[in-house]
Design goal:
Layout lengths: L3 E2 L2 H17 L6 E7 L3 H17 L2 E7 L5 H13 L5 E4 L9 H7 L11 H9 L7 H13 L7 E5 L6 H10 L3 E5 L6 H5 L4 E4 L17 E4 L3 E2 L5 E2 L4 H4 L5 E2 L6 H17 L4
Parallel strand pairs: 1-11, 2-3, 2-4, 5-6, 5-7, 7-8, 8-11
Antiparallel strand pairs: 9-10
NADPH dihydro-nicotinamide-adenine-dinucleotide phosphate binds next to helix 10.
Length: 279
């Protein structure tokens, strides 16, 4: 069986092109504030990439750099100031935050109507209960990729490996909303291989390099690799051992070039929707 590549870069470019046209029709440019605490080389690269793409679409970005030693109260107070600033449409906190900071408190401080990442309890609750909400970008990007392979997911078995607030939980909920039968695996799951091998759609978001091997994949399955880990030579790798699942999976996202670009495209899409008041 041939394994088809689900090209996130290509799809993200198409989405961003459409967004650029949409932004031209808006009464003014959307404005996004990015809060960046400390100095993490990977975060710096991601922020530069998001800024470059946002500006190419016509979204204005301001990066607010806070010192590494900032405390949670200083961070939440700053978020509050941005909440009250009518010139700011969307707020994004670059994760991960330095370890001494309370990430949940920082996320909850964002006004749900400016929560570009869709991570506040109100927006995640909306995803669960079905009222219009800003959806989390990475799971939303994964879903768009899955739909490239199969437009209708009703009745399919889906397995999500990982249960974080950022990726795993909202991903499982999105698939449930698509009428999939969903299993959620995590670090205490027993017989992970057997559970994954039942999946028509397998999404892995653990950060454990090579966790998903050929025997974990049902023939023809759609496999979405969210994980990012560093290899010895400094390049990045995913959760899926791509070489071993080739010829077994029906579709596979590459790392890099799969979920990463789609996450950025969904941030931009959420920004445009916020300004259009489509939530
Ligand atoms: P977290 O560390 O918050 O969550 C990891 C999850 O993996 C946890 O739920 C953990 O289980 C689970 N896990 C760990 N070990 C195993 C195991 N052996 N078997 C099954 N499950 C396991 O990470 P995130 O959700 O924030 O991110 C996951 C990965 O996705 C990371 O590599 C991150 O870099 C990447 N990522 C990529 C993005 C992109 O755009 N491409 C965007 C966001 C994240 P438990 O809950 O029990 O601890």
């Amino acid at each position: 069986m041939e394994t088809l590549r689900l090209d996130g870069r290509l799809l993200a470019n198409q989405i961003q092109q459409k967004l650029k046209e949409e932004v031209r029709t808006l009464p003014r440019k959307p404005r996004m504030s990015v809060i960046y605490v400390g100095d993490n080389p990977a975060s710096r690269i991601y922020i530069n990439m998001k800024t470059r793409i946002a500006e190419s679409i016509g979204i204005e970005v301001t990066v607010h750099k806070m010192p590494e030693q900032s405390n949670t109260e200083q961070l939440t107070c700053f978020v509050q100031k941005l909440n009250e600033d009518p010139s700011v449409d969307g707020i994004l906190i670059q994760l991960p935050l330095p370890k001494h900071l309370d990430t949940n408190a920082a996320i909850e401080a964002i006004s749900p109507s400016k929560d570009v990442d869709g991570l506040t309890s109100k927006n995640q609750g909306g995803l669960m209960t079905g009222y219009p909400t800003i959806l989390p970008c990475t799971p939303l990007g994964c879903l768009r990729l899955i739909h490239q392979a199969r437009p209708i997911l009703t009745g399919l078995n889906a397995v999500v490996v990982g249960r974080s607030r950022l990726v795993g939980r909202p991903m499982a909920q999105l698939l449930l909303n698509e009428n999939c039968t969903v299993a959620q695996a995590h670090s205490h799951t027993q017989n992970l291989m057997d559970i994954c091998a039942r999946a028509d759609i397998l999404v892995s978001a653990t950060g454990i390099r090579g966790l998903i091997k050929r025997d974990f994949v049902k023939p023809g399955a759609i496999v979405i690799d969210v994980g990012i880990s560093k290899t010895e030579d400094g390049s990045i790798a995913g959760d899926v051992d791509a070489e071993s699942v080739m010829g077994q999976a029906g579709w596979l996202t590459p790392v890099p070039g799969g979920v990463g670009p789609m996450t950025v495209a969904m941030i931009m899409s959420n920004m445009v929707n916020i300004v259009k008041h489509e939530f």
